[in-house]
Amino acid sequence: MLPSDVARPTAVHYRMLALTWAGWLFDFYDLILYTFLLAPITADLGLGREEHALVMGASLGATAAGGILFGALADRHGRKAVLQWSILTYSLGAVLCGLAPGLRTLAGARMVTGLGVGGEWAIGHALLAESVPPRLRGRFGALLQTGAPVGVGLAAVVGSFLAPAIGWRATFVVSGLPALLARSAGCSPSRTCGARGGCRRTRARFASRRIWDAPSGSPC
């Protein structure tokens, strides 16, 4: 039995939703945070509008490449492992932004962030869509999308209130903390279940672990 075959969502489905939602939140947070730090970056590195446009364009372009790259890797190596890689990638990009001494390194760091962001977008959607019962996919997909405006709001708060206190570099370094999500992605769904309906739920959870870990096309 696949997790999408059950009549009602289980704890496994909500755990997948929570993890992918958090991934989406920090995707958009890391992607948008730069726009709230333009003034201090300009003052420190002396960048003009053209240079900022180049940096932001490079990061957005990298999201497309990241979706293609990490999506292909997820089909080969499994969603769990590659979801971890994508989260670690955009977290690493955030830290590198805080360490960048100039335009080229900053643009490169933003491209690393974009690669990870695009990868998490692709894998998060795929993981949720193949795990949730068909009648609930629209609802779960809509809930996943709410991570985007929450992430933008968080970027606005951090950029407006935290960054002036600790500086733009420290803000980017602290923004690498979503790497801790990779630890959550590394924990497979629990085997345990209650006594009532235990056999069916156990089969669903076993199947969810196989979807979580297995490459695309693996037999179920």
Radius of gyration: 19 Å
Distance between the terminal alpha carbons, to the nearest Å? 8 Å
Order of helices and strands: HHHHHHHHHH
Major sheet characteristics: none
Give me the CATH superfamily: MFS general substrate transporter like domains
Number of domains: 1
CATH architecture: Up-down Bundle
Q: How much helicity do the residues have?
A: over 70%
**Beta-strand content:** under 5%
Structural class: mainly alpha
Number of strands: 0
Shape: elongated
Low-pLDDT segments: 188-208
Q: What does the average pLDDT come to?
A: 83
CATH class: Mainly Alpha
In CATH, the topology is named Growth Hormone, Chain: A
Number of helices: 10
Task: Describe the 3D structure.
With 220 residues, the chain is an all-alpha fold. The protein has a single domain, classed as Growth Hormone, Chain: A (Up-down Bundle), CATH 1.20.1250.20. 76% of the residues lie in helices and 0% in strands. It contains 10 helices and no strands. Helix 1 packs parallel to helix 6 and helix 3 runs parallel beside helix 5. The longest helix is centred in the N-terminal third of the chain and has 29 residues. The radius of gyration is 19 Å and the shape is elongated. About 10% of the residues have low confidence.
Write the layout of secondary structure elements.
Layout: H1 11-33, H2 38-45, H3 49-77, H4 79-99, H5 103-131, H6 137-145, H7 147-166, H8 168-174, H9 181-185, H10 198-213
